[in-house]
Structure to design on (225 residues):
């Protein structure tokens, strides 16, 4: 499968613990996005990379959240000191650097904070 | 007020029915428009782009009214497999795909 892959698919963690999600985009895609989706809502934009540069961050991305894409390929999203309100599906997506180009979503990483 | 507003539904319709979803967006600078489909606990998938001239893809017709900042999706001859959440999406940025999603409208098609 050469689509966007995310790992782990499901994570249950205790409040206060740190968690890290990984995203591997489609290989030739140089744009990578992170979104968060809570129950009953649509996905919300978190951040965007073009190659290794993080070009925009939503105000939703508090200081407990950090995203990296060190070599312009895979990306990680780390949440420190998790809170119950962080429980959500974290979606990664990628696209080519062509305006209007379709973005492709991974299957998401489900986080439950207990 | 959310940037993209949709009726959450659910819309419960029999097979074969025609159903219409509406959506409004508040940012007049929005560049492009889409409908995505999302099955339960799955990722969103692009259903179709939406153009001012209106566009059709089989049983699905999408329409954009930029003056009213209104987007619609019409599904004709509903199938059981159309049951899903339909997300109205606008691309706010001209430079990259900063997609802003509505909360979605749930459709349940029954026999």
């Amino acid at each position: 499968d050469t689509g966007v892959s995310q790992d782990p698919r499901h994570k249950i963690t205790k409040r206060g613990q740190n968690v890290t999600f990984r995203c591997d985009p489609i290989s030739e895609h140089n744009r990578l996005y992170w979104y968060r989706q809570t129950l009953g809502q649509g996905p919300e934009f978190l951040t965007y990379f073009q190659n290794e540069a993080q070009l925009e961050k939503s105000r939703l991305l508090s200081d407990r959240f950090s995203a990296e894409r060190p070599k312009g390929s895979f990306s990680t999203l780390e949440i420190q000191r998790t809170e119950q309100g962080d429980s959500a599906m974290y979606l990664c997506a990628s696209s080519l650097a062509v305006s209007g180009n379709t973005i492709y979503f991974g299957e998401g990483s489900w986080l439950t904070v207990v | 007020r959310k940037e993209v507003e949709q009726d959450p539904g659910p819309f419960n319709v029999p097979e074969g029915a025609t159903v219409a979803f509406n959506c409004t967006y508040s940012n007049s600078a929005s560049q492009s428009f889409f409908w995505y489909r999302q099955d339960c606990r799955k990722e969103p998938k692009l259903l179709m782009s939406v153009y001012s001239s209106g566009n059709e893809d089989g049983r699905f017709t999408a329409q954009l009214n930029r003056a009213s900042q209104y987007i619609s999706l019409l599904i004709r001859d509903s199938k059981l497999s159309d049951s899903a959440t339909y997300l109205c999406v606008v691309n706010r940025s001209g430079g990259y795909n900063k997609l802003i999603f509505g909360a979605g409208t749930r459709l349940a098609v029954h026999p």
